[in-house]
Write the C-alpha cells for this entry.
Amino acid sequence: MMTKLMTAFAATMIALVSLGTVVAPAQAQEPLRLTLRDGVIEALPFALPSFEAEVAGSEQMAADISRVIAEDLNGTGLFRQIQSSAFISTPAGFGSPIEFSDWRAINAQALITGAVAVNGSQVTVKFRLYDVFSGAEMGEGLQFAGTTDGWRRMSHKVADAVYSRITGEAGYFDSRIVYVAETGPKDDRAKRLAIMDYDGANVQYLTDSSAIVLAPRFSATGDRVLYTSYESGFPRINVLDVATVGRQQLTTAPGDMAFSPRFSLDGRQVIYSLINGGNTDIYRTDLATGQNTRLTNTPAIETAPSFSPDGSQIVFESDRSGTQQLYVMSANGGEPQRISFGNGRYGTPVWSPRGDLIAFTKQEAGRFHIGVMRTDGTEERLLTSSFLDEGPTWAPNGRVIMFGRETQGADGTTALYSVDITGRNLRRVSTPQGGSDPSWGPLQR
Amino acid sequence: MRVLAAVLSVWAAGVAADHGTEEVMGDPNGANIAWAENFKAQIASCLNLGQQTNGGVAFVSVSFEMTPNARPAEYSIQLLNPTGRAGEAEGFEAARRAILRCGQPSYALPLDLFSQWRHVEISFPYFVPVSE
Amino acid sequence: MKHFIKAALVIGALTLSACTNADRFDNADAVDLSAQNALNTPTTIDQTGLGGANDPSSPQFFSQTIGDRVLFEVDTSTLTAAGRATLDGQAGWLATNSDYLAVIEGHADEQGTREYNLALGARRANAVREYLISKGLAASRIRTVSYGKERPLEVCSAESCYAQNRRAVTIISIGQNS
C-alpha cells in the first residue's frame, strides 16, 4: 500500500535522439536526449534511527519523540519508514560522519538523525536531515527547546521541517483541530466542543454537553473559536477564547436563530447565517463596530459562507436554483456566480488556504462525497464516498482535508477522517469518542 | 480503486495539458531506439514525483555522464538552464535521486553503443507547487 | 424536553400496536394511525373525563390526542392535508387555552448537510407558525426553533424512519416567550 502505489503509467511519448543546441561534451558525439513523461508516486523511504539520549534519563523521551516524528511522516502517505531491523549501521552519535553507503544499500532516500536532552522540566531536540543519494545534508540542523510537556509539539516541528525540506511545501503537523466530540446513541447524542492536536493527541473539552453545540470554526491565528450553541434554547453563535476557555454570545443582526459562522482572515469580521421568519440569509458583523451587513436577500436557503483567503470573496451554498448549489459573491454581497453544475447537491464549501481550490460536500444518488473544485467550479474531483461524509476543513498547507463521517443505521457512529487532496491516503483520525465538524487550526508558532 | 483511477487520469491530464505542445521528434538517424526507450523506463521507475499539486507540471533538464559499464557518474549530474521557478530545485533533486537509484548496480544498455549514451540529457517532470 | 420524551413514548406505543397487527414493521400504518388519531379524537374524549390525556385542557391531550406534530415530504416545508388537520386542532386548543405559549421545533432527517438541514427545519417550523397565525393565534405566542438533523426520533437509516424525523413539533408551556 505504502510502496509503489502505481508504477509507470500512460507512457506516451518516446525518447528521441535529436539535434539540439546544447554544446556537445568532450567527444563530438551529441548527447542522448530523452524526455520523461511519467514517474511514480511512491512513498519515499526514510530511515530514522531512534534519537540519541544526550543526557542520562532522556531515553524514554528520545524514543517517544522519534516515534511521533515517524508517525507524522508515515501518516502523510508520502513517506515510508524503513524498519530499524534492516539497518546495516547506526550513526555513532549525533553529528558523527554518516556512512551513506550503508543507507543506500537499504534504499533509504532520506536519513533523519537526532538527539534529545532532558534537564528537569526542559527538553531540547536536535535533528539533521540527509539526502542519502547525494550524500549531503538537506538544510542545516535545527534545535528546538521547550518544556517536557510540549514534547509532542517539538516532535511535530521536527517532522514539519523534514516534510517541508523534502516536498518544498509547508508542513501541517504542529497544528490543532477543534471539533464536536459525540457520545451516546443516535437519538440521544451528547455533543461538546473539544480541541486536540492534529493527530488526535491531547484532547481537551471546551464545553459540557448540556446544550447542543455545532460546527466550531477556528480563527486564522487559532486564538478564538466560533460555534453554534443551543445554550439559550435557540441556535446562537458563541465566541470562545481558546486560552481562557471563556465564551460569550456574538451579538448578530436581529434574527430568530443564527448559525454557520466563520471569521474573516484578519479575525475582525464574522459571516454567518441568520434565520428570520423561516428564511435563511447570510450576514456579516464587524466585531469592533458591531455593524451588521446583510449579504444575501432571497427567499432561498443561503448558508455555509466561507471567505476567500484574500477576503475579497465569499463562497456559500444556496438552493435558489431549486437544489443546493455553490455560489461565489463579493465579500460585500451583490449578484453571485453559480460555480457548481454537476449532478446532485453541493453544500458546505470551504475556500482553501492557498486560494486555489474549494472543498465541498456533495450528495448524489444517496451517497455523500467530499470533493474539491477550482474556484470557478471547473475540475471537480470527488475524494471520498460513503453513506454520510460532510463538513470538510483544510490543513494549513492546503494539502489535506479533514471531515466527519457517519455510518449507517440505528447503531451509526461518527468519526473524523482525513484525505489527501488527490484522494489518496484516507485515514481515520483517532479520537476518544465519536467526532464531527472538525476545524483545522493554523500551524502553531 | 475507482478514486485512484480518477487521480491517475487527473494527473495524466495535468501532464498532457501542461506540456502538450512539445513535439515528438523522430530519430534522425533511423537507429533502433528500443534501448533508449527502455533506458527511459528504467529511470522513470525511480522518479518519485511526490505529491501532486494544483500548480501544474513543469520540466527540468538534467545532464550527466555515463561510465562504460552503464553506471551514472554522480559528480556529473547537473541542472541545465535553471529558471529559479518554484519547485525546480526539488524537481532536480528528485531527478538526481532517480538517476542514481536506478543506476545501481547499472543500467541495462547496449554496451557496444556506449558512444551514443555516454552523454545524456533528460527532461524530468515535476509538480509545480502553488505559490502562497 | 419532557414533552419531547413523552411524545416519543406515544409514537413508540402506536408503532408497537401497528406491529402486533401486521407481523412486521409497517410504516404506512404508523403514519396513518397518528393522523387518524388526530382526526378522530374529538369523539372519544369528553365522555370519559379522567384527566391526563383525556382532559381536553391538559398538555397531554394536546400532545397525544390532538397530536403535537406534523410530518413533511423529503426536502419540503409544505404542509400536507393531514398536517393541516392536526394544526387546526392545535389552533383550536391554543385558542381555548390562552395561557399557553408555543414553540415550534422544526426537524429534518439525516439525509442532508448539517447547515442546510438547520435551515430546512426552520422553514418547516415557520410553515406551522404561519398556519397557526392564519387561524387567528397571536404571533407573539409562537416562536420557532430548528434542530436540523440533531434530534432524530427514529434511528434507522431508511425512509420509514426518515418520514418520522421530517417533522415540526409544537411544544406548549405556560409562561413567557422570552
User: Anything to note?
Assistant: Chain C has one domain: 2-174. The first helix of chain C runs from residue 2 to 22. The longest strand of chain C covers residues 100-107.
